[in-house]
Amino acid sequence: MGLMRHFLERVSRGRTFQRRLSAEFGRRPIIVSPDAALRYLSPTGYAFESALLDVAAEWVRPGDTAWDIGSNLGVFAVAAGHCAGSKGRVLAVEADGWLASVIRRTCSLPDNRDLAIEVLPAAISTEAGAARFAIAERGRASNALAEVSTRATTGGVRETQLVPTLPMDALLEVAPGPRIIKIDVEGAEVLVLRGANRVLSEARPVVYIEVGKENADEVTKLLTDADYVLLNPEVTPLERRPLERCVFNTLAVPRDQYAPPG
């Protein structure tokens, strides 16, 4: 199995093809690649992460602005763009230039040209500058800033690129304040939140964030200090109760927007 996986990972590099989202998202086409994750090769089943799409369906409304930080192939960006409609806006931020180019190709497909999605090829961190970015050997979905790449790139690094970095607060200068932010940055979530003081205090978006165990305590503190309630998005809204500590996929809702179930 290991040899077969290694073979598939090698021959899949740079290859792309189309998959479509479900009818709930207008069967929008997305250009995918097994170079990002081998699950896109599966001939059966649904290749997209259901939790990610559920969050878009639940929280994005017509006219909303959504930010997709660590956009990868842009799955959340396209789903959010569909839900936000022609008056909404999505900013897809992806540090890997190759993945960013694939998102742009998705946006240029005839069935997606009505979506207001902008792509920013950059990494979000604590400050503006440049940083080393590790391209994962086993799948670009595990790409990460080199300074935090231990968890994400356990399968090795195929190359390291120099990429521009920005604090998330800087995005407020070029894009409307978001209604929701999705963050999936493979270990850099603390860096992202440290550079998001204005976003969290002024824009007050809902935040859907992937949190590694090694960062759970600090991410919990950053979000609760900003007066957010932590929830598990993978249970139904009626089952959601505030969490004391972040889980792997955490939904953070501003306290003044949180309505207890029941």
Topology of this protein?
Blueprint: H1 2-11, E1 17-20, E2 29-32, H2 50-59, E3 65-69, H3 75-84, E4 89-93, H4 97-108, E5 117-120, E6 123-125, E7 129-136, E8 144-145, E9 157-167, E10 180-183, H5 189-194, H6 197-203, E11 206-210, H7 216-225, E12 228-231, E13 249-254
Parallel strand pairs: 3-4, 3-10, 4-5, 6-9, 10-11
Antiparallel strand pairs: 1-2, 7-8, 7-9, 11-13, 12-13
Helix pairs in contact: 2-3
Explained architecture:
- There is one protein chain.
- This protein is of the alpha/beta class and 262 residues long.
- It has a single domain, classed as Vaccinia Virus protein VP39 (Rossmann fold), CATH 3.40.50.
- 25% of the residues lie in helices and 25% in strands.
- It has seven helices and 13 strands.
- The protein has helices spanning 2-11, 50-59, 75-84, 97-108, 189-194, 197-203, 216-225; strands at residues 17-20, 29-32, 65-69, 89-93, 117-120, 123-125, 129-136, 144-145, 157-167, 180-183, 206-210, 228-231, 249-254.
- Strands 5-4-3-10-11-13-12 form a seven-stranded mixed β-sheet, sandwiched between helices. The protein has a four-stranded mixed β-sheet with strand order 6-9-7-8. Strands 1-2 form a two-stranded antiparallel ribbon.
- A hairpin with an 8-residue loop joins strand 1 (17-20) and strand 2 (29-32).
- Helix 2 (50-59) packs parallel to helix 3 (75-84).
- The chain starts with a helix and ends in an 8-residue tail after the last strand.
- The model has no long low-confidence stretch (mean pLDDT 93).
